[in-house]
Design a protein that fits this description.
Organism: Jeotgalibacillus haloalkalitolerans
Number of strands: 13
Shape: elongated
Order of helices and strands: EHEEHEHEEHEHEEEEHHEHEH
Radius of gyration: 22 Å
Structural class: alpha/beta
Helix content: 25-40%
Strand order of the largest sheet: 5-6-13-7-12-11-8
Strand content: 25-35%
Pfam family, one: DUF3388
Protein name: YmfK family protein
Largest sheet: 7 strands, mixed
Number of helices: 9
Distance between the termini: 52 Å
Length: 263
């Protein structure tokens, strides 16, 4: 029988020497393998486990609930946030009201790249928006995550190296495994009808699409924020406000001055 992965997390109530050894021994006696283990936030420990049957996990849960040295907080099939927590030792910050919005600061670029790479590895259509002020690291994170996920990335619109606004793809680029990057500001400012026709073709493809400045993108298209599967916010610091006021005041996308902001 193929082994199944589980995520166990517990909060330490009495941090005494040998506690981790007790937990590990218990898992060994139940023939449950530890794949990864790490401290998760303060006073918590997370583990990715492999078990042959659900009965092993049921027995584990019953025993753990009798222990007064720990309080089990999670025992479930691992979610992406669980995997990230074990790998990096902390949870990704998620908006309390909008569960599909995840927040990062620039010091967490490594965590962000790892998170996006995991999203890129998923099959089928995914629409990911990324918000952030200029030079905070949006595009570099998108590209780095593409490399980590072994995905070929294509700029449909961008200002990373030079102004890019594409009106068509070559046949080989219509590949569902490719990752398409669209800059909502550049597309809005520099677009042609052919460009938008291409964007709509790409949006219909069962592939990963990453859109920088999703709020500007939806302002000028038939798409809405509800169409996005994930929204990522990247800031220089936690209190930074992501605003497009400067853009709206500056020619409303009508002239070349907009490019000076290098969004």
């Amino acid at each position: 029988m193929e082994k199944k992965e589980w995520y166990l997390e517990y909060e330490i109530q009495k941090n005494r020497p040998g506690l981790l050894g007790d937990i590990s021994s218990l898992l060994g006696m139940l023939s449950i393998n530890i794949v990864t283990i790490n401290g998760v936030d303060e006073g918590r420990r997370g583990m990715l486990l492999l078990a042959r049957s659900d009965e092993q996990i049921v027995r584990l849960e019953l025993i753990l609930r009798t222990m007064d040295t720990i309080q089990m907080t999670k025992l479930r099939e691992p979610k992406l946030r669980d995997r990230m927590a074990v790998r990096h030792g902390r949870y990704i910050q998620r908006d309390a009201d909008d569960k599909k919005t995840f927040r990062f600061i620039r010091d967490e670029l490594g965590l962000l790249v790892d998170f996006m790479a995991e999203l890129y590895k998923q099959d089928g259509h995914k629409l990911i928006g990324i918000r952030g002020l200029p030079r905070v690291g949006k595009t570099e994170s998108i590209v780095a995550a593409s490399v980590c996920a072994n995905k070929k990335w294509l700029f449909v619109s961008s200002t990373l190296l030079k102004q890019t606004v594409r009106d068509k793809l070559i046949p080989d680029e219509y590949n569902e495994n490719n990752l398409f990057i669209i800059d909502g500001v550049v597309s809005t400012q520099r677009s042609s009808d052919k460009h938008w026709q291409l964007v709509r073709e790409i949006m219909r493809m069962p592939s990963i699409k990453v859109i920088e400045h999703p709020d500007i993108f939806v302002e000028n298209t038939e798409y809405s924020i509800d169409d996005f599967d994930y929204i990522i916010e990247l800031r220089h610091d936690p209190d930074e406000e992501i605003t497009y006021d400067m853009l709206h005041k500056n020619t409303m996308f009508s002239g070349s001055d907009f490019g000076e902001f290098d969004f």
